C-alpha cells in the first residue's frame, strides 16, 4: 500500500483503476514564410475553427454542469480573439515572417508567463487558460486530434494537469475522479470538478508516477489523500465513507426551501458570492437567499478597454432581473493589487497590495467611477440593489463616495432616467483601519461586509498568496476574530447589519463563532449554501455562544 498526499479541491470518494491521460503531441517547427498574408489567414481560419469548437463545448458544459461551467468556455472564446493576443501573433507572422504555429506557441508562452507571475491565484489560473486556447489553435493548424481515455471500465484519471477543454470533452461515465501532479484549487479544472461533483486532488508532484497505472486506487477529495493498492480493511472503510457522503448529499437536497435558523430560533441570512451574470443559475439551483458579493471587475478583466455605461448597466440589470426581487449587492471595481489591467495604465509599485487599488483608483478617477455609479443606479430600477465599496480606510472616503452618488442621482433625475431610492450603501471591512474605525464608519452606511481574506492578510502581515507562509497565515487567528467581534458590536450600536463575504464565511468550523458574535449574513460560493444551512440548523447558540465569547475575551484562549 502506498499513500500520496496532495490537495483536495473537490470533495467526494473515488475508487478504481488508475489511468493516465493520453495526449497526442506534435513537434512545433519554426520556419520563414514567403507569403505572410496567406500565413496570417491560415491563423485566422484556425482561430475561427477554435472559437466554433469552444462554442460547442460551452453548450455541452451547460447541459452537463450548468451556466457556471459553460462560462469557462465562453471566456476561452473571448481569450482566443483577445486583441492583445491576436496582435502579438500578427506581429510575429507579418513582421518576422514566422509560420503560424511558431507565432502561436511563442505568444502563448509569453502570455502564460505574464499571468503566472501575478500574485493573484485567479490570474495565475489564466496561465493555464491561455495555454489551453493556444494548444487548441495549434492542434487545428497541425491537424492533431487529441487523445483521451481508452478504457472499457471507469477510471481515476491522472495527468500532469488537465485543461478545462480536456475535462469537458471526456466521457464522464468513465471518470471516477481527477488526480493531477500540478494545478490549484482556483483553476478552472478544479471549478469544473466541483460543479460536476467529481472528486479531484491536485499538487501530487512527482509522486504521481505512471508506473502505478492500472493499479487499484482510492482517493478522498476532502483530505487530498491518494492510496494506491489499499488493504481490504482500508478499502472497506472508504466504501462506507462514500456511502455516508452520498446519504448526506441527499439529505442536504431536502434543505432547499428551509430557513437558515438555529435550534434556539436565531436566523442568519445565507447569500452567495458570484463573479458574473452567468453565475446566477448556480445561486438559484443551490437556493441562495440573495447575492452578497457580485464582483463587478469581471467586466473590466474581460475587456480590452473600459466597459461603457450601457455595457455595465446591461450586466447589472441582468443579475437584478434574474434574482426577482432578492437582494443583490454589487461591489464597485476592485482593480489593482493582484488584479492588474493594462489599459488602466497603473504605475508599477513595489507592493501593489498596499498601493493604488480598489476604491483608491475610483476616487482618483472620478470620471471612471461616475460611469460605474450611473450604470448601477440605472440598474437599481430593476431589482433590490445594494452597493458596497472595497478597501475603505477612512471616513472621508465614504463621505466622498456619498457626495458622488448624490451628484449621479441628481443628473439621472435631470435626465428623466428612473432609479430606486432604496439602494443600501455599504463598505467592505478588509483593513484593520476600517475595523478600528467601524464605530464612526457605521454612522455613514447601511451595512458592513467583511472581506476576511484581505482582513487576515493585513492584520497578520501575511501575504495570502504566499503558500510558504503555511501556519503563519491563520484566518482563525484570535486577532482577526476580535476585530470581527468589534466590528459587529459597533455596527449594531448604530443600526447597521454585518455580513462576511470572504472564504471564512463557508468555513463550518467558524459558523458557531459568527453566530456567537452576532453576524447577520454569510455570503459564500453557491455550492456551500446547503452545507452551511445544515450547520446553522444544528446549532443551539444558548449552548455554544457563552463559551465562544469567553474564549474570545479570555487572556488564555483555548479555541483560537
What would you say this structure looks like, in words?
This protein is an alpha/beta fold. It has 3 domains: 2-23 and 147-234, 3-Layer(bba) Sandwich (Glucose Oxidase, domain 1), CATH 3.50.30.10; 36-142, Enzyme I, Chain A, domain 2, CATH 1.10.274.10; 269-553, Phosphoenolpyruvate-binding domains (TIM Barrel, Alpha-Beta Barrel). 46% of the residues lie in helices and 14% in strands. It contains 21 helices and 16 strands. The strands form 2 sheets. It has an 8-stranded mixed beta sheet. It has an 8-stranded parallel beta barrel with strand order 9-10-11-12-13-14-15-16. Helix 6 links the parallel strand 4 and strand 5 (175-180). Helix 3 crosses helix 4 (100-116). The radius of gyration is 25 Å and the shape is globular. 44% of the residues are buried. The model has no long low-confidence stretch (mean pLDDT 86).
Characteristic terms for this protein:
alpha/beta; Enzyme I, Chain A, domain 2; TIM Barrel; eight-stranded mixed β-sheet; 21 helices
Amino acid at each position: 500500500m502506498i499513500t500520496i498526499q496532495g490537495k483536495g479541491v473537490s470533495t467526494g470518494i473515488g475508487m478504481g483503476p488508475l489511468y493516465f491521460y493520453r495526449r497526442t503531441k506534435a513537434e512545433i517547427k519554426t520556419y520563414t514564410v514567403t507569403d505572410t498574408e496567406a500565413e496570417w489567414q491560415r491563423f485566422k481560419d484556425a482561430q475561427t475553427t477554435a472559437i466554433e469548437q469552444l462554442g460547442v463545448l460551452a453548450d455541452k458544459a451547460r447541459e452537463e454542469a450548468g451556466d457556471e461551467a459553460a462560462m469557462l468556455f465562453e471566456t476561452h472564446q473571448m481569450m482566443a480573439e483577445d486583441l492583445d493576443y491576436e496582435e502579438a501573433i500578427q506581429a510575429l507572422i507579418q513582421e518576422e515572417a514566422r509560420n503560424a504555429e511558431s507565432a502561436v506557441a511563442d505568444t502563448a508562452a509569453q502570455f502564460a508567463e505574464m499571468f503566472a507571475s501575478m500574485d493573484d491565484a485567479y490570474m495565475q489560473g489564466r496561465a493555464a487558460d491561455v495555454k489551453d486556447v493556444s494548444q487548441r489553435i495549434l492542434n487545428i493548424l497541425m491537424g492533431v486530434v487529441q487523445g483521451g481515455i481508452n478504457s472499457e471500465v471507469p477510471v481515476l484519471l491522472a495527468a500532469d494537469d488537465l485543461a478545462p477543454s480536456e475535462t469537458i470533452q471526456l466521457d464522464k461515465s468513465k471518470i471516477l475522479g481527477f488526480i493531477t501532479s500540478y494545478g490549484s484549487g482556483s483553476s478552472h479544472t478544479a471549478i469544473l470538478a466541483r460543479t460536476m461533483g467529481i472528486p479531484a486532488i491536485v499538487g501530487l508532484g512527482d509522486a504521481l508516477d505512471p508506473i502505478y497505472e492500472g493499479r487499484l486506487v482510492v482517493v478522498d477529495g476532502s483530505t487530498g489523500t491518494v492510496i494506491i493498492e489499499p488493504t481490504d480493511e482500508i478499502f472497506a472503510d472508504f466504501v462506507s465513507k462514500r456511502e455516508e457522503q452520498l446519504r448526506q448529499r441527499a439529505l442536504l437536497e431536502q434543505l432547499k426551501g428551509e430557513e437558515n435558523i438555529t435550534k434556539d430560533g436565531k436566523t442568519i441570512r445565507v447569500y452567495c458570492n458570484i463573479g458574473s451574470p452567468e453565475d446566477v443559475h448556480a445561486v438559484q439551483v443551490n437556493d441562495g437567499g440573495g447575492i452578497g458579493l457580485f464582483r463587478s471587475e469581471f467586466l473590466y478583466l474581460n475587456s480590452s478597454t473600459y466597459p461603457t455605461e450601457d455595457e455595465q448597466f446591461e450586466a447589472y440589470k441582468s443579475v437584478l432581473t434574474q434574482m426577482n426581487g432578492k437582494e443583490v449587492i454589487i461591489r464597485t471595481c476592485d482593480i489593482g493589487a493582484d488584479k492588474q489591467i493594462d489599459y488602466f495604465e497603473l504605475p508599477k509599485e513595489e507592493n501593489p497590495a498596499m498601493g493604488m487599488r480598489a476604491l483608491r483608483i475610483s476616487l482618483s478617477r472620478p470620471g471612471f467611477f461616475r460611469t460605474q455609479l450611473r450604470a448601477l443606479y440605472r440598474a437599481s430600477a430593476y431589482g433590490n440593489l445594494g452597493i458596497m465599496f472595497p478597501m475603505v480606510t477612512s471616513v472621508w472616503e465614504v463621505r466622498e463616495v456619498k457626495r458622488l452618488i448624490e451628484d449621479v442621482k441628481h443628473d439621472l433625475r435631470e435626465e428623466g432616467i428612473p432609479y430606486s431610492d432604496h439602494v443600501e450603501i455599504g463598505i467592505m471591512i478588509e483593513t484593520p483601519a476600517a475595523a478600528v474605525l467601524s464605530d464612526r464608519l457605521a454612522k455613514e452606511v447601511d451595512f458592513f461586509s467583511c472581506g476576511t481574506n484581505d482582513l487576515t492578510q493585513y492584520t497578520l502581515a501575511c501575504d495570502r498568496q504566499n503558500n510558504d507562509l503555511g501556519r503563519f497565515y491563520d484566518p482563525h487567528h484570535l486577532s482577526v476574530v476580535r476585530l470581527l467581534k468589534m466590528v459587529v458590536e459597533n455596527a449594531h450600536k448604530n443600526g447597521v447589519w454585518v455580513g462576511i463575504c470572504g472564504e471564512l464565511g463557508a468555513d463550518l468550523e467558524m459558523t458557531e463563532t459568527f453566530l456567537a458574535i452576532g453576524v447577520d449574513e454569510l455570503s459564500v460560493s453557491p455550492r456551500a449554501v446547503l452545507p452551511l444551512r445544515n450547520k446553522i440548523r444544528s446549532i443551539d447558540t444558548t449552548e455554544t455562544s457563552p463559551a465562544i465569547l469567553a474564549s474570545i475575551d479570555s487572556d488564555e484562549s483555548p479555541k483560537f
